Amino acid sequence: MKNIKEHLGIVFICDLHGTVSRVLHNSFNLKDLRGRRFSSLDFLNERDKIKFENFLTSILNKEATINWDMNFYLDQVKYNLQFTGFIMGENVLVIGTTASDTSNLKYIEELLKIHNEQINNYRSILKHINESEPLNQDYEGAVYEEITRLNNTLVNLQRELTKKNTELNKTTKELSFSNKKLEAFVETIPAGILVVEHDGNIILANRKMKYFFKDLLKVDLSDLRNLNQLNILNPLLNRIREIIKSKSETEISIESKPREQWLKIISKRVHSDFDEESTVFILEVQDITSFVKFDYLRQQFVSNVSHELKNPITAITLTIESMEKFKDKLSVREINDFWDIISKNARTLNEIVDDLLLLSKADMGSLALEIEPINLNSLIKDLLHQMSPKINEKRINVNVKIKENSEIIGDRKRLGQVFRILIDNALKYSDQNSTVKINKVIKNFGEFEFDHKKGVLIEVKDSGIGIRKTDISNLFQPFFRSPDAKGFKGTGLGLSIAKELVSLHNGHIFVKSEYGKGSSFYVYIPFLSNK
After folding, report:
1. CATH number corresponding to 189-287
2. Which of 105, 243, 388, 457 has the fewest CB atoms lying closer than 10 Å?
3. Residue ranges of the alpha helices (H) in 21-136?
């Protein structure tokens, strides 16, 4: 997770008007501070310049430690500093740090050096006076009184700093524990989380958000301090910038990769604890690709099924209306023809409903299998005989290369449905006078040997329209139909049913295709089934 800020700080001594006389610690590498009023420097805005003046006034009035939060701008990056002040005679010691624990700074050592220098100066003066001439008793007493006062001040300051550091260490440990719990929680969130200020400063980003930036923008978010450092045009980054600019709470969806990925961005706006005018945005980015694709498939299914149901229902309705209208004029042959039309379309409706029920049962795992040895050659021949009207209509040559004694283990009815679907698709998408091949792959090794189990691999090959690479990943999803298949009848359920039935046999189904040159569908059934 990205840390809020590195622990940086500045420590200096100024007079009661804020003019810097000495810089003790400067991790920002600020130049030309000595001799200038701190409140006049460019890295403070007008509001924080006034804050610093009030800070000095409060120290003088209370003669105690005063804590203030101020913003500090450097190289287009905003730092929030905690300022602490101590009265030192006619001067003020000012400590500003981005860390909640100031004990890690080395200003205490420098502070002791300053006091020791002052004490040594007094001792040198005293030694010089003693060597030159006898001291006036009153003057000698005043010098020793001043040295004693400085020593007492140093001791009191050390006690105060020790007490302060003890309190800070305790608070830091508590905050560190809380931060670790918060970080662990944020990292487990499956969505991307980004916390960013209104000026683009990144406060926090979890692992998932870093993945989105790396994948979509090729940017390592761990090395980025401010979104304005990016000069990239990207749908995700553009939307985030629009949200920050408009200061709006919103929920929007974007297509982050054309036809591949969709994201939802949810933004919440909160006010900063350090600056009432500063706004912080909490952005949640969710990958909704699966939901978008499912919704698309659902819409496609409704459209396809509605169309497929409408055709036979319309045919049945019109036929019945015609029979009713012309019942006194129809011959026996014409009445029988009408009944044939009704019967044919009723069977079509029944097949569609059966497909839907079969897919539902397979999804729920409630489909029981009757496992037995099956003669593969006989099964394929029976299917081809049933489909002979369509084969003859398109004058397609079906070439079968399966030995007479080839066997598979499975449910004859369900595997018959699988091969019926594949052969029917091969016939549907092939041109007239073309060839469909059904082969048993003899050598089932290498890429065709799944899970180190031996089995039978059957190929159904056509020379039809082929399948685009972009469609292959969705081919076995329920209700999916390629845009290239719009001119062909179908509900988009066949291949998804085939996949479910093959999976019930612990098998696999896959496709190899070249668009415009045909497709080869492969079904692998292991010799021994666990179901």
Report:
1. 3.30.450.20
2. 388
3. 46-62, 107-132
